What does this fold into?
Amino acid sequence: MATEAKIIDARGSFCPGPLMELIKGIRQEAVGVVLEVWSSDRGSAKDIPEWVARAGHEVVGNVEADNIFKIQVKKLR
Amino acid sequence: MGDSLNVILLSGDYAKIHAAAMVTVVASSLAQTVNVFVSMEALPAFHRDPRERDVIVKGPVGEQIAETASPDYLGLFEQSRDMGEVNMYACSLVADLKKWGLADLVPIFDDTMGITGFLGRIGSGASLTF
It folds into this structure.
């Protein structure tokens, strides 16, 4: 996991809410920025990496603790 | 991504309309062009007047989605249009039957159109019917 990341707290949001919050964040940030999505939605832990791969960005971390998924995504383009 | 995605929305079931909106917004976020044709029982779900939209049927899951999902299907379609190329058409047959024009519908449609016009505009990509 990267140590410098902008947090997107999407806990409590249902699918595709966390992904939508990530997309919004990615559109606003510069290339190279790492965003960290916090999600309580189990599906997001798989959906977000799938979207990130297709969209041409990079997952740099994906951990779960206490039913909260923390997925770090680096904007590559 | 290559081919466009074509979404044909016919059902007046809330959950199906929400699913169509989710598919549209994700495809759009991945730079896929999406063409959406809203017809039959689905069109009232897009009326400006919330009372007209209330005719949409909600099953047990639909009820939960309506209570918890944010944004709702209208918000998701709006977001999809902000993200990429999403062309939305309201069926002219249903609009004529209901005596509705574009001004009666939520402002996310490009035009009213018959199925022939829609089939003439869509690309060779996959078509999903809800």
